[in-house]
Specification:
binds N~2~-(3-carboxypropanoyl)-L-arginine, L-arginine/glycine Amidinotransferase, Chain A, alpha/beta, 3-stranded mixed β-sheet
């Protein structure tokens, strides 16, 4: 059985819009009320997946959720036609595209029973994300139905859990037992800390992780207050490398000393605040990159175009590449539509280390399947949405039809 890292990207749903729903996510607030382009957004996501395939990486997908979420509205005693506009926007969000918040994943080499464990995130902090998990778990139960996987319900909502965006694995290679780092927030100044320590501890127990290879690390208050609403906005790990901003963690030295002891060959790549201030790191999403090891063995950072346009960030990258640093190559992707809601390349994907043949093939893609998906998107996805239109019957009908067309094209009608 060959264990490889598979990136599952959330396909941007046809209701993608800018309603400014995420307090503490500066891009979401900045772009509230802008006109969105769902079709272009989804095609940008497809192009990112194509670039990943070209690098030789394994690629999977998750599907858009039913929007409006009529079941959630019904639980609130209303319907999309009658709902208060803010509630309607919460029911229409395409936020499930950010698959890094779908679940926390502990691959087989890390767990006591040798299964790959996935716990769906409860996302309870933001109302528009709190109703994602039922449609997410339905997909996880299909995609990872085999006996080499264990899919868990969300942890109780008393404790906020936002999934893999606050979780890092460090190991000499993906298929080897890793040290799993759970990053949680305590305080974020004016902004909420979305990942709670108790939720992370519960997941570590449910996933049957070895306490000797487990670290809980607090996110720095300064990072959350500066707009790092998830750890993956200020840090990313791949195999034995941790790439992070100097101000990412509350106790950086404590974390580093544990990693040095526990991870053979551990390497830390730090970006100093003097070179790239937190504000530049967060605006450019330097760390919300996919740090990957393609088959050619050259650690590659997949960055959003905004990183190249931010002077301090791009100079840092050029210096690092010119030196002999652990990151050997940089690829740029255009995911501007998602970025404008605070979702970079890393937000759009969930990493699962597994044997690709153990995954339901309907959730795996190659170039031909991506082209087929792109065809449906070009045909069915709305071109533009303004948040004031979110309750228009025609738009709602178009959005619902578009999703069904995609599910049918992929043979996933049972998710309807
Ligand atoms: O939860 N944005 C998402 C972005 C998630 C990014 N994910 C990671 N960092 N892994 C969020 O804040 C914006 C929705 C709106 O404003 O309409 C939004 O939900």
């Amino acid at each position: 059985m060959a264990l490889v890292e598979i990136n599952f990207d959330g396909i941007v749903g046809p209701s993608h819009n800018y309603a400014g729903l995420s307090l503490g996510n500066l891009a979401s607030t900045r772009n509230a009320g802008e006109v969105s382009q769902p079709r272009a957004a989804a095609l940008q996501g497809i192009d990112k997946m194509r670039a990943n395939l070209k690098l030789g990486l394994s690629q999977g997908i998750f599907l858009p959720h039913p929007r409006p979420d009529r079941a959630w509205l019904s639980d609130l005693g209303t319907r999309i036609e009658d709902a208060d506009p803010v509630i309607a926007a919460n029911a229409m969000s395409a936020s499930a595209m950010w698959a890094a918040n779908a679940a926390t994943v502990s691959p087989a080499p890390d767990t006591a029973d040798g299964k790959c464990h996935l716990t769906v995130a409860n996302l309870r902090t933001m109302p528009h994300r709190s109703h994602e998990w039922p449609a997410t778990i339905a997909q996880l139960r299909l995609a990872f139905a085999g006996e080499s996987f264990a899919v868990h319900d969300p942890v109780p909502t008393g404790f906020g859990d936002e999934g893999a965006a606050n979780h890092m694995r460090l190991a000499p290679a993906h298929g080897k037992p890793a040290v799993e780092v759970f990053v949680y927030g305590v305080s974020g100044g004016a902004f909420p800390a979305r990942q709670h320590l108790e939720a992370s501890k519960a997941i570590a127990r449910l996933h049957r992780l070895d306490p000797g290879r487990l670290i809980f690390a607090e996110q720095s208050e300064a990072a959350i207050a500066a707009g790092a609403f998830h750890n993956d906005v200020v840090a990313v790990a791949n195999e034995r490398v941790l790439f992070a901003h100097e101000q990412a963690f509350a106790d950086k030295w404590g974390l580093l000393s544990k990693l040095e002891t526990k991870v053979p060959g551990f390497e830390y790549v730090e970006v100093a605040a003097a070179e790239v201030p937190l504000a530049d790191a967060i605006r450019s999403y330097l760390f919300n990159a996919q740090l990957v090891t393609p088959p050619d063995g050259q650690p590659t950072l997949i960055l959003p175009a905004e990183a190249r346009e931010t002077v301090s960030v791009w100079s840092w990258i050029e210096r690092h590449l010119a030196g002999n640093g652990p990151i050997r190559r940089v690829e740029i992707v255009d995911v501007r539509q998602s970025m404008a809601n605070g979702g970079g390349p890393a937000c759009l994907r969930l990493r699962v280390v597994a044997d690709p043949t153990a995954v339901d093939p309907r959730f795996m893609v190659n170039d031909a399947k991506l082209e087929m998906i792109a065809d449906v998107i070009r045909r069915e996805w709305p071109e533009q949405i303004h948040r004031d239109d979110l309750q228009q019957p025609q738009l709602i009908a178009d959005i619902e039809r578009a999703r069904i067309a995609l599910l049918e094209a992929l043979g996933l009608g049972e998710l309807a």
